[in-house]
Amino acid sequence: MRAPGTDLALVGAEEIARLLTPAAAAEAVAGVLRDGFDPESDPPRVNLPVAAGKLLLMPAASGAYAGVKIAGVAPANPARGLPRITGSYLLLDGATLLPLALLDGAALTTLRTPAVSAVALAHLAAPEAARLVLFGAGPQAYGHLRAALAVRELKDVTVVARSSEAVEALVAYARTLGVEARGGAPDDVRDADLVICCTTAREPLFDGRLVADGATVVAVGSHEPDARETDSALVRRSAVYVESRAAALREAGDLLIPLTEGAIGPGQVVGTLAELVNGRAAVPPDRPRLFKSVGMAWEDLAVAAAWHRARCNPTGQRDIVR
């Protein structure tokens, strides 16, 4: 291991995954919230438009660590055979701000976002929830499938995406995990216990009136005020939970668009992730539960710090979030 401040090699996806399981990443997120961190204090992300798309700057500091993610979103990259999300994460020592590690930013995001969703699912989804409809078939969809399996015993997965080839690949992968899986259509949400949306869609993916009372919906695909994956009908029916009220009302089109329409009021958000983790948020049984994530810098730091602790002390990581 290099000393702080010396040359850093980029830590890639395989090395991150080797030391940190999806369940351990989720436990890292939940642990930060149990320890009293307030996500409302997290600094807003800096969003800079550039010719290729946009650059995102996400700094955070808490306890023994600090860090910053520089991410790029390049919509034209997939057509070039390149990832849509790029970037890196610089983990720093909290006391000295000397560098500790440089992580692949896209790989970290692919682990971090499902980890946040897993924490939400652990608290919102019915214990017997077993039927998942998964929108999307990219890296986040794979990550969310693994994360959902870390907190619920799924029996049936339906994949909905634009590319039939991508659907077939994800269905095949789900079967290797011991889950019955198939391709499907948006209306399949009517039979789902869980719905996870991790797409680049800018318009609603399904009719929110079809979602059953008591079902849980997680939407993670957008952090832009004019883009959404869920419709106003679902948001109006649902008990809504977010990572941070301030961040959601700044960035979450899934909520801001219904607010602008007058379909909901600010009180539609009944709880935050921290309130769920610490037992301070009610979960009504007779309404859908919607968790809307925009992604926050403290989450990247929580997972990156957990990875670093696991690297320094492999036997010390915790591995459950139940």
TrEMBL record:
Protein name as annotated: Ornithine cyclodeaminase family protein
Domain of life: Bacteria
